[in-house]
Design a protein that fits this description.
GO molecular function, one term (chain B): ABC-type phosphonate transporter activity
CATH topology of chain A: MetI-like fold
Subcellular location (chain B): Cell membrane
Organism (chain B): Limibacillus halophilus
CATH class of the largest domain in chain B: Mainly Alpha
Number of domains of chain A: 1
Helix content of chain B: over 70%
Helix content of chain A: over 70%
Number of helices of chain B: 11
CATH class of chain A: Mainly Alpha
Strand content of chain A: under 5%
Protein name (chain B): Phosphonate transport system permease protein
CATH architecture of chain A: Orthogonal Bundle
Strand content of chain B: under 5%
Order of helices and strands of chain B: EEHHHHHHHHHHH
Radius of gyration of chain A: 26 Å
Order of helices and strands of chain A: HHHHHHHHHHH
Keywords (chain B): Cell membrane, Membrane, Transmembrane, Transmembrane helix, Transport
Oligomer: heterodimer
Number of strands of chain A: 0
CATH superfamily of the largest domain in chain B: MetI-like
Number of domains of chain B: 2
């Protein structure tokens, strides 16, 4: 047999995702029925929407001609709260999540410690920031302190999980080499693990700083301090020019944070 | 990597003395900065409330348990709304994100100089504003209700879906594009036969992932009036009906875990 006879000459359509035609039909029609039901359950008050268009236009105008001056003291206070909250919560969150991350790495921690740390991570990841913020505001009162606690708590789940995964993925031969010198557990972590995960830990921390700032703009809505509270007030008062100014500043800070963290990450790695 | 020679042996060190000092200086500055931020942040904190928190927490816990199980009958309709907000919002976001992604990808954009920056700006602004803020704005503009929630989720999803999709488009195998264009295919045919089949699995993965995130986010949109189970949460919080709040938290947690499971299953099946 020649080569050409073995190779298929005609192009065949690659197999479709769901092989069985009945299943495919069932899933597609189920999706269509769901869509019809879902769309029909959306009640739209078109008169209200039409009224709102004028307000929407005013918002666009406010966005194009933002008013930084008339509410500047509120805005700057909110920004300072948000920024300080972000920095302190990120630092404290990292300090807590490093030991938890080490404890949640399968190749480093004994079984009981592993399960305790994994459940802390799961708890922190399952609860949304807003829900944690509601609880912390109820316990600690209004203001940035509750926000700080919320962001720290949320940081733990994110950072410890990724750090633990990173530690599990390390090059075992280096750990083996350090272990064979008779190093203690602490020395193992310091000389075999830490150099391998440090660049990524720094990268993740910067990324989390970025996320924490974005979140700090939101948790103010439920009373946990920061720029979100200012934004909420501005929109409640229909001061779209101030709201536009706040949103522009949030976008600008997030952009600066994203670019500079990308730069720092390149420099570290 | 410097080696310092002492009287009898050479000692290897990772950094020079200057580098070492710079490193310590950097850490010191970070600590100072942290303390400064801490002082500014806690300037208005009432420490009495903080010290009182354990009592408050115990009190809250006592009031939150047991959850009011019968309240779940009220929650089915808002839960259905929440699912619809997430799903329809994801669809809306995807519909807008696909063209944005093609305009943003370096190899499919009509103009790297003019169109690409605009597409990237759309992506960044959608990503930097949380869905709760979008909802806050939209409730003020088009009124409270599910529609505001759907649009908020949609606007928020654009950036995420478009960013991951345009990265996938940029990473495609160019030889297939060359093969198709060598047959004399039009630009639309190149997209249809060379690019879309390559990014389709990634696209479905991204969409399901975003749907999962959107379920999470849509549960709280009601706090600002955008429909769904968050409305019940807001109402229960306003009257301090903590057993109901606990019940809502349980329902939210169940939904989130379920959606995560579904999305993990689907992603395993297609990727």
């Amino acid at each position: 047999m020649t080569d050409a006879a073995v190779k298929p000459r005609r192009w065949k359509r690659p197999p479709v995702l769901i092989q069985d035609a009945r299943w495919r039909l069932g899933i597609y029609s189920g999706a269509v029925i769901y869509l019809i039901l879902a769309i029909s359950s959306v009640e739209v008050n078109w008169v209200r929407v039409y009224d709102g268009l004028e307000r929407g236009w005013r918002f666009v105008q406010g966005f194009l001609v933002p008013d930084f001056t008339s509410r500047w003291s509120d805005i700057s206070q909110g920004l300072v709260e948000s920024l300080t909250m972000t920095v302190t919560a990120t630092v404290v969150g990292i300090l807590i999540s490093v030991p938890i991350g080490v404890g949640a790495a399968r190749n480093l921690a004994p079984r009981p410690v592993y399960y305790v740390c994994r459940s802390i991570i799961a708890l922190s990841r399952a609860l949304q920031e807003i829900i944690i913020a509601i609880l912390f505001v109820a316990m600690f009162g209004f203001g940035p302190f509750a926000g700080f606690l919320t962001l720290s708590f949320a940081t733990i789940g994110f950072l410890a999980k990724l750090l633990a995964e990173d530690i599990e993925d390390i090059d075992e031969s280096q750990a083996e080499a350090v272990r064979s010198t008779g190093a203690s557990w602490l020395q193992l972590v310091n000389y075999a693990i830490q150099p391998q995960v440090m660049p990524r830990l720094i990268g993740l921390s910067l990324y989390r700083l970025d996320i924490n700032f974005r979140e700090s703009a939101v948790i103010g809505i439920v009373g946990a301090g920061g720029i979100g509270a200012t934004l909420n007030t501005a929109i409640d008062r229909y001061e779209y020019d101030s709201a536009g100014a706040i949103l522009l500043m949030i976008i600008a800070i997030v952009m600066v944070a994203e670019y500079s963290s990308g730069f720092v990450r390149k420099w570290v790695q | 990597m410097p080696i310092t020679k002492t009287s009898d042996s050479a000692v290897w060190r990772k950094r020079t003395t200057l580098q070492q000092w710079a490193l310590w200086g950097g850490w010191f500055l970070l600590v100072v900065f942290f303390i400064f931020c801490w002082q500014v942040m806690t300037k208005d904190t009432i420490w009495y409330f903080v010290a009182d928190a354990p009592t408050q927490a115990a009190d809250l816990g006592g009031r939150m348990f047991p959850p009011r199980w019968s309240y779940i009958d009220v929650l089915w309709a808002p839960l259905w709304d929440t699912l619809n907000i997430a799903t329809l919002g994801t669809l809306l976001g995807i519909a807008i994100a696909i063209p944005v992604a093609f305009l943003a990808a370096r190899n499919t954009t009509p103009s790297v100089l003019f169109v690409r920056p605009i597409a990237l700006f759309i992506i960044v602004s959608s990503r930097s504003i949380n869905s709760l803020i979008w909802a806050l704005l939209l409730v003020a503009i088009i009124g409270p209700g599910i529609l505001a929630g759907i649009v908020a989720i949609g606007l928020r999803s654009i950036g995420f879906v478009a960013k991951l999709l345009y990265e996938a488009i940029e990473e495609i195998d160019e030889t297939q594009v060359e093969a198709i264009s060598a047959t004399g295919a039009s630009a639309a045919q190149v997209v249809d036969y060379a690019i879309v089949p390559q990014v389709l699995p990634a696209f479905f993965g991204i969409s399901v992932f975003r749907w999962d995130i959107n379920i999470r986010e849509s549960t709280i949109l009601g706090l600002v009036g955008a429909g769904g189970i968050g409305l019940q949460l807001q109402a229960s919080l306003n009257v301090l009906a903590w057993p109901q709040v606990t019940m809502i938290f349980i329902v939210i947690l169940g939904t989130v875990v379920l959606s995560e499971w579904v999305s993990a299953k689907v992603r395993h099946a297609i990727i």
